[in-house]
Amino acid sequence: MPEIAPFRGWRYNERVVDDLARVLAPPYDVVDSNTVQALLDASPYNVIRLELPTAALQTTSGRCPYREAAILLRDWARHSVLVRDTAPTLYLYEQQFSASPCPLTRTAIIARLRLAPPGEGIYPHEQTMSGPKADRRRLLEWTRANVSPIFGIYDDDTNSVASTMREYAGQPTLDVVDRHGVRHTLRSVTEPAIVRQICQAIQAADLFIADGHHRYETALRHAHFCHSVYQDIGAAGDPADYVLAALVPSGDPGLVIWPTHRAIRGSRLDSRQLHSMLAQSFDIEHVGHGPDAGRDAWQRLNATTRLPALAIGTASDQTWLVLRPKSIEPIRRRYPGHSERWYRLAVTVAHELVLSKVAERNRAEVRFEHDTERLISQLSRRSLDIAVLVPPPTIQDLKALARSGERMPPKSTFFYPKLATGLVIYRHDAP
Sign of torsion, CA 186 54 130 146? Predict the structure, then answer.
């Protein structure tokens, strides 16, 4: 079962950094070049320099950006830009954000999580790719630190563990609002008896990786490497056997999955052509034309009980259609051995019955968009050619599939808001 432990985290020193909002960053995999530059301009100490050195550090020819990040991390510790907490700590991390119809708060426990093979109390849910894992591994090998936490969900529908944390946590050591209007607060729990109680409660629960699959797999591989090289280390709990994690209870009201829609460029198909192409696989409902029809189509997807359903819009004639699969047998034949739940994921249907025909055959570019209104607006402005609205999976989908060892396609889930990077750092050479 999952094992967590407190640690003496490294945090920004407010005597050196007067505005903590300027040194935090989003996770490395959701920042583009414009965001990186804005973060660099915000502060010379912004954590993006450590988390994404390949984009953030201007290295001369032949110099390794990962090595430069490791040097910078040591320099910041040496000059007290980062200071280490004095006692082993569990951190209470709360994010307050706007959502319809009312504001929400998501509560996480930040701790170090003992690594275990998938399926041994810790369950991944999404497929990974080799490129991001190679990047994260090089950063971990050089820095020997976790700068950003993975995002985990632990079984606790009553939120009792988080309530205990909230009761015994001290005053906020960080309280900032980011550029998206999300408020981040961090508090500490150091009382040994309470820390033990929290750790024991988590150990009794299953844990699901919500975000950070590449970092988790990288950390697990790095730990195996450390044991193979330094065989006398690890029996008593090598720091490399742990990864920094932010853990949210399954019953948290702020645990929100946003949709991950597909935006297609490079395909000039109109609605009649799409209808002809997809009619064999789907019952197709014509919704209407323009942005209002796109919003109506999305509402119909949210209201329907017949799952999975998708909506597709075309820039060429500004038409929106709702697609309901006639059968999932083509997917079952192509990918035998999966559960019924996996076959009926909207993202599975989108990939196998729509994108394989609309995008792949035309070698069109597919990108991802989480904001439904923004995607509809982009289509109306003809900034893209085709929009596919894809309802998100539920937490129940994630847990059931993960427990059965099944992985969703990449970019199936988007948990909002993203965890901030730079709240607290876990260093293997100083746990």
Answer: negative
